[in-house]
Amino acid sequence: MTFKALLASKTGDTISTSLVDFKDEELMPGDVTVAVEYSTVNYKDAMALSGRSPVIRQFPLIPGIDFAGVVESSTYPGLVAGDRVLANGWGLSQTHHGGFAQKARVSGDWLVKVPEVFSTRDAMAIGTAGYTAMLSVLALEHGGLTPAHGDILVTGANGGSGSVAIALLSGLGFRVIASTGRLEEAAYLRALGAADIIDRNTLSQAGAPIAKERWAGAIDSVGSHTLANVLAQTRYRGVVAAFGLAQGADLPASVLPFILRNVTLAGIDSVNAPQPVRLQAWSRLASDLDLDKLARTTKVIGLAEVPEVASQVLAGKIQGRTIVDVNA
User: Fold this and answer.
1) In this structure, are 132 and 42 located in the same domain?
2) Residues linked to residue 152 through DSSP beta bridges, in sequence order
3) Which of 319, 298, 291, 323 is nearest to 185 (CA)?
4) Does 282 map to a domain?
5) Which of 267, 287, 310 is the last residue of a domain?
6) CATH code at 93?
7) pLDDT for 147-197, tens place per residue?
8) Quick one: which of 284, 275, 303, 301 has its CA closest to 87?
């Protein structure tokens, strides 16, 4: 038996992909085999396929840090054939075959049952981007923020994580400020729940170490000068959740926001988050995410289209979430 897979190979410094027929016996070890239905293209997937970051650590490898589908066979306690499951992160697309294929074999420890309210397609409309957005919201709440504390800024607002973060925060009653480089797409952001929209250029250059207080908290996917300016303008006892480096991995900031305003910078890791945290995040997504808003963020592509879409993600040309129908 064979199935379709997008396989990444490397020659010199160049990564290339090809759509291949893969065999069951070529899958890596694991106690659960899943018939994959959907995957998704995240920023990290785009970095992996471009080679811009050494995400993929062995070649050849099936990329894709997410997948959702139905258990085909299992020896893992608590998972049986027919269960709907999803996976985010772990070793997928790094050292283990990922989700850009019609089958996956992984450790049952990596899997979460898809919440009843979601289809497998919904699960990948959320994907790592949306799951990371939920982890960020949980961090703001852990820091004590409520809607009464004031505005929440979301940077990279048009991207997958930003889009879901806006939908989640607005649904929870927060007033959301969206930072974007695509002001022409303001209507999209307002439909998700953004109350105000600012140009990302107001945050992307070197700024003062501490500045006028503007927001109670923020969710940042950009890093570098943007994150430094976000911190500098965060209110007393505010919380900033950071998980991205679209502008850069550096942080040219000052300690002043931390020692003068008691600001908290919460780092968000979605790849190796422990299972209880994952279950909490997916439970909250099931209760807090408006599926109508989620539908506004998504488009669907096939496996063969993944490389081109990944290039568009890096170029900042993709709005919202891109679902991959691996059987299309």
Assistant:
1) no
2) 176, 217
3) 319
4) no
5) 267
6) 3.90.180.10
7) 999 999 999 999 999 999 999 999 999 999 999 999 999 999 999 999 999
8) 275
Nearest C-alpha neighbor of 134 from the set 102, 112, 108: 112
* Residue 278 included in any domain: no
Q: State in Å, rounded, how far the first CA of the chain is from the last one.
A: 18
Q: Answer yes or no: is 218 within a domain.
A: yes
Nearest in space to 67 (alpha carbons), one of 46, 90, 50, 87: 87
pLDDT, averaged in runs of 10, over the chain (328 residues): 95 93 96 98 93 91 98 98 97 97 98 98 96 98 98 96 97 98 94 97 96 98 98 98 95 98 98 96 98 94 96 90 96
Q: Which of 95, 93, 94, 73 is nearest to 82 (CA)?
A: 73
Question: Is the whole model's pTM more than 0.90, yes or no?
Answer: yes
Report residue 54 as tokens: 């050494």
The answer to whether 193 and 165 are in contact (CB under 8 A) is: no
Residues 6+ apart with CB under 8 A from 141: none
Catalogue the E-assigned strands of the chain: 2-11, 14-23, 32-40, 66-74, 84-88, 103-106, 111-113, 152-154, 176-180, 194-199, 215-220, 234-242, 264-267, 298-302, 321-325
Domain range holding 177?
A: 128-267
Closest to 68 measured CA to CA, from 124, 15, 147, 146: 124
CA distances from 46 to 6, 144, 262, 314 (A): 14, 34, 36, 6
Q: How many domains does the chain have?
A: 2
Sheet with 215-220: strands ordered across: 194-199, 176-180, 152-154, 215-220, 234-242, 264-267
Distance separating alpha carbons of residues 103 and 97, to the nearest angstrom: 10
